[in-house]
Amino acid sequence: MNKYEVHIYIIDKYLTKNRLSILEFGRIRNTSNDYFEGDGWSTLAYAKHPKVHHVASVDPDETTIKATEQVLSLQCCLLDQCKVVMYEYLSRPLDPYDLVFFDAENDAEQQWDLYLLCLEFGAIDRKTFLLIDDVLSELGRKGDIIIPALMSKYDIIEIEEYVLLKPKDV
Fold first, then answer.
1. Rounded to two decimals, what is the model's pTM?
2. Which fold has domain 3-167?
3. Which helix (DSSP H) or strand (DSSP E) does residue 45 occupy?
4. Spatial distance between the Cα atoms of 48 and 68, rounded to a whole number of angstroms
5. Would you list the domain boundaries of the chain?
6. Model confidence pLDDT, tens digit, residues 66-97
């Protein structure tokens, strides 16, 4: 499976409800199709999936935000269901997200800080699935803090280079 297909697989296999709400950190870095295979373009995978109602894509880099908006605008006007913002514009959701995807820098402390930010903003509850990229690869540092810290509350599912943390009571 390529990275794009992994995101589709996770939604289809593990997230059973319709009208999913997804928050992701890190997104499309370049609009060239050459980047599709490596980056996975998760934002596009989520926005195109029929079960997904809303995607909030957050990044500190305005360049990647513009790249993401460009790709989404070329794909059936998917910007209607996608909100692409910089970190400082992240706002409290009405309800916790169904899935939070951590794909920012390869920095375990940053992933933990983003998790804590999600808790503070009410973006995560006991039913929220967490997904971390580049854990089971040579880059695999992103999950070094968050996975051990949450093992008692989540089942750990390895999928390609990803780790999906599935809430134990879901």
1. 0.81
2. Rossmann fold (3.40.50)
3. helix 42-48
4. 14
5. 3-167
6. 666 665 554 444 444 545 444 444 556 678 89
